[in-house]
Specification:
Chain lengths: 115, 115
């Protein structure tokens, strides 16, 4: 069974540019969540998508956005990049069934460096 | 989500048991106790979760105090591959869909395993 796939794995951008990251969940999983991991702040929740709708959002500025497609694949976009956006961006998928306690399956992440 | 407290770091020798503690004195009755771990250069990986009773799976055991204000993740025989950051997380079950894919990570415990 294939795991969560994130692309690209590594990328370098400059300040002011924008970036789009992609996440393919495990087959059958309908929920995709995004996290940012930095040495200073640790792992922080960005947002969750389910059935193409954003269900929950963390405390990040509007420059961070996402979407989910009908096949459950998700993308996140960061516009007007800042140096502080350098981080590992992790995607996690789950079945999201009612009453399920929600085990999340994480990808290996996309490491973004902003110069 | 309620807060958890874990030691910053712990050390163990290979093939010895490891007990990783977690305090969660403000846990509510509907909070499940989840453990994830993150190996170097990888995304977090689900380890185990429980509500009230002790739980066992192929990776570890989870011992939950009778008052549920603390828990302990037990690795029965540590291997070098168990060296990772271990996160203890409280997650409310069936949260009405508003926080399903959201995990609130703390700083975790860095486990070092010596050969």
């Amino acid at each position: 069974k294939a795991g969560v796939t994130q692309t690209p794995r590594y990328l370098i951008k400059t300040r002011g540019q924008q970036v789009t990251l992609s996440c393919s969940p495990i087959s059958g999983h309908r929920s995709v969540s995004w996290y940012q991991q930095t040495p200073g702040q640790g792992l922080q929740f960005l947002f969750e998508y389910f059935s193409e709708t954003q269900r929950n959002k963390g405390n990040f500025p509007g420059r961070f956005s996402g979407r989910q497609f009908s096949n459950s694949r998700s993308e996140m976009n960061v516009s007007t990049l800042e140096l502080g956006d350098s981080a590992l961006y992790l995607c996690a998928s789950s079945f999201r069934l009612a009453g399920d306690t929600g085990e999340l399956f994480f990808g290996e992440g996309s490491r973004l460096t902003v110069l | 989500d309620a807060k958890t407290t874990q030691p910053n770091s712990m050390e163990s020798n290979e093939e010895e048991p490891v007990h990783l503690p977690c305090n969660h004195s403000t846990i509510s009755g509907t909070d499940y106790i989840h453990w994830y771990r993150q190996l170097p250069s990888q995304g977090p990986e689900y380890v185990i979760h429980g509500l009230t009773s002790n739980v066992n799976n192929r990776m570890a055991s989870l011992a939950i105090a009778e008052d549920r204000k603390s828990s302990t993740l037990i690795l029965h025989r540590a291997t070098l591959r168990d060296a990772a950051v271990y996160y203890c997380i409280l997650k409310r079950s069936n949260a009405g869909g508003t926080s399903y894919g959201k995990l609130t990570f703390g700083q975790g415990t860095i486990l070092t395993v010596h050969p």
